[in-house]
Design brief:
This protein has two domains: 106 residues; 173 residues, 3-Layer(aba) Sandwich (Rossmann fold). The protein starts with 27 loop residues before the first strand and ends with a strand. With 336 residues, it is an alpha/beta fold. Helix 1 runs parallel beside helix 5, helix 1 crosses helix 8 and helix 6 packs across helix 11.
Length: 336
Amino acid sequence: MSEARRPRGIESHEFTCSVMRLHTDSAVAVVLPQPIGDSLIGLVLVNNLILIRNGYRPVVFGWVVEQFADWLPDVTVGQPDAYPAAFDTVIELRPTDYASALSRSGHTLCLANLPEYGGMKHMIERVIDVTTNVLHLSNVTCSNGLTVPPGVVRGRFAERVVIHPTGSHPEKMWSRAKFLALSRKLGRRRFAPSFLVAPIELAGWDDIVHAQSSRAFAPERCRDVDRRVGLVHRQRDSGLGHLASLIDVPTLTLFMRRGLASSWRPGWGPGAIVLPPSVVPSGALRERLWTQLLTVGRVMSAFRNLQRASTRTICHFKPAALREVDRPRARILPDA
């Protein structure tokens, strides 16, 4: 890129390379992706940029950050229409359809295109690699800066178990019948299972709304989770698991294969991962048969282990997002 065309605020950067330095007086935007989990992880980048850590004042875009604006007191939330060509540097985790319109040059820095954002590392570790080795930020933290409102007490509804049974890809969803069987088992053990589904997905689960052993609800906003959950069991799409992990709610996450678990397991709070047993030699065949291989008994056993471990922790709430976390804390169960 020639000096004449290089966006102001960047000392030396080709958008395809991994060397970049920002000026603290440059206008910086961060565009978060649509999925909840991606956005919560992307806020780690934002938290490392902001004034109290590295002196930047990024404006952050995305529906998730809009929903959590009052939980992010140090973050400036923007609407795309209000900032046409307003920024020297626009950073996006994945390509979006409006980020380039925010940039004075029309260019963006897309983390998904950087080698530091690839590999088998956990997604939080990928963001940390970018902040350290690409943006050269100091005082780097794994926290995303989420500040939970006062009065939230962890363990207040210790018997409540939220089940998130749906996902964006049907082949990555555990079967409906097994989720219902798991709910019945939880009910027999005096837990209060509830199914958490999006409003557009509620029709597929409306037959269990009045069941004695489970309740279905669809919160109007994803941030309502903090008022409802005591312990979370959830499915492959990891966004709500990340949210629960951030507020220190134990998570039990089902994955079809280890690679996905290594990258996407909820990583801020206590939790565990369950995978199908390795009884099929072919990886492709395991992916096809994972819902059959992962039994209700295996998941229930993992839940009991996690629940026992959770009861030994202090019930007074300390938001995980405010702690310095070195590595994702969710563990993969042995023999999985």
